[in-house]
Design goal:
The protein has helices spanning 14-19, 28-42, 51-54, 66-76, 82-95, 178-191, 203-206, 209-217, 242-247, and strands spanning 106-115, 125-129, 134-147, 152-160, 198-201, 222-224, 254-259, 276-281. By secondary structure, it is of the alpha/beta class.
């Protein structure tokens, strides 16, 4: 077996981190591209989501720069598996006492979107993009992270494919809603041995009975946002939505909304569900 050609080292402690993944890359070009990519993500560029910015080249006119083309090859054509990189990264985080996930941390689910013109790039479609606060052409990904009072770090990420991109739309077997993707991210974290106290997500997931049911089935505690108009099953003289709770404040300046953790698909189960108290500021 021929000896590997040494790769130019990444700056400072970044080299120690990058070296942990060298066995996943079969060529010098891949190992160098990986280091360039890591360095580009960490540098204080205004637009570190573009290839030109990642290598410090001029926007648009620098697209043909040698370093830009090399990074383009590494990201789009070079044969390596990001799942393997993610798994080893999480293994390292769990070995280190300073970053090891513990049962008092939280598992956060969220999505992020960025504008992207054209239709040739996978997963691109007209959809709501949180980064600009409106519907536009772009890419959306669902991500998860672990967080406690001291630190936070990303766990997994998966792209969302809009239904129009698939041959049969929402009926296509490959179509997955963002909530369905979020469930797979929870499963991936549990498989990786990540401990957490509760799953936390916004109302996109809190108003989705399927996501809520999946967490209950796995006996996972959760804190999910809900829209003000969200109604629940309750006795007639009790509040049925956050709006009602805010409209009928209790002594002390705060109102308490008792919400049973159940889905509308199980209306008969509400009376035996354990209540959750949700405080609504007024």
């Amino acid at each position: 077996m021929s000896q590997r050609i040494p790769c130019p080292a990444a700056p400072g402690p970044l080299e120690d981190f990058a070296r942990q993944f060298d066995d996943f890359f079969g060529s010098l070009a891949q190992r160098r591209g990986f280091r360039d990519y890591l360095q580009g993500l960490l540098l204080p560029h205004d637009r570190n989501k573009t290839l030109t910015a990642l290598v410090g080249a001029e926007p648009a006119v620098g697209a043909q720069h040698r370093e830009v083309q090399r990074l383009q090859f590494f990201l789009s054509q070079s044969p390596w598996q990001q799942e393997e990189i993610t798994a080893r990264r999480l293994e390292g985080l769990q070995r280190d006492p300073a970053t090891r996930a513990h049962e008092n941390g939280s598992f956060v689910v969220d999505e992020t979107g960025d504008r992207k013109d054209g239709t040739k790039t996978a997963h691109v479609g007209r959809q709501y993009l949180g980064s600009i606060g409106k519907t536009d052409n772009g890419i959306v990904a669902v991500s998860s992270l672990w967080v406690d009072e001291r630190l936070y770090y990303p766990l997994h990420v998966a792209p969302y494919t809009p239904a129009p991109r698939l041959p049969k739309g929402k009926a296509d077997p490959a179509f997955r809603t963002k909530s369905q993707i979020a469930v797979t991210l929870v499963d991936a974290a549990l498989e990786a041995g990540v401990l957490f106290r509760a799953v936390v997500a916004n109302c996109l997931y809190g108003d989705n009975p399927t996501f809520e049911d999946s967490l209950e089935a796995a006996s996972l505690p959760f804190v999910l946002g809900v829209k003000p108009s969200r109604s629940i099953w309750a006795l007639e003289d009790e509040v049925h939505s956050p709006e009602e709770a805010v409209a009928t404040p209790k002594p002390g300046g705060r109102s308490i909304l008792r919400m049973a953790p159940m889905a509308p698909t199980r209306p008969a189960a509400w009376s035996s569900s354990r209540p959750i108290r949700r405080r609504c500021p007024i």
